[in-house]
Amino acid sequence: PQLWLVGHASAFLLRFNARLRAAYAETKAAIGFTHPILGVHARGDDKYQEAAIHYLGEYLQYAPRFGRVFLATDDQRNIDEMARHPNITFLRLPGQVAGAGNRYADGALVNLLFDVMLLS
Predict the structure, then answer these.
(1) Which of 37-46, 47-56, 77-86, 99-108 is the most confident on average?
(2) Tens of pLDDT along 51-65?
(3) Mean pLDDT across the chain, nearest whole number?
């Protein structure tokens, strides 16, 4: 029951208005997001104190099952790693890599929401 409540509360709080729903649909179409796809949130080593560091390559062992990977990351090294795997189709949201200088830039929150929705 508690998990059900949290799930429904989250869905309610994260619901998109009509403009955001349209932008989300356009973004999915623009990057070619369709299923099946492996969603990977690869953090940088900035959170090494919270958990063990896992690099993108560790997740890619599962990629052949899906053939395509949606990558949500704020680490340029993970983006550079994509080029070393030409046999995998990578999708990611367009725009800059998040960082201290642009974390609060216009569109950063929307990209964060879209990353969460595409990973779910």
Answers:
(1) 77-86
(2) 777 778 888 888 888
(3) 83
Q: How far is CA 106 from the centre of its chain?
A: 18
d(CA 68, CA 85): 11
Torsion angles phi and psi, residue 19, rounded to 5:
-65, -45
| Full-model pTM | 0.79
Q: Do residues 24 and 111 touch, judged by C-beta distance below 8 A? A: no
Residue 91: strand pairing partners: 70
How far apart CA 73 and CA 44 sit, in angstroms, is 8
Structure tokens at 115: 């990353």
Joined tokens for residue 41: 């949130």
C-alpha atoms less than 13 angstroms from C-alpha of 81 in its C-beta half-sphere:
17
Q: List the strands of the sheet with 38-42, edge to edge.
A: 38-42, 68-73, 89-91
List % helix, strand, coil for the chain (3-state, nearest 5): 50, 10, 40
For residues 85 and 60, the answer to whether their CB atoms sit within 8 Å is yes
- The whole-angstrom separation of Cα 119 and Cα 81 is 19
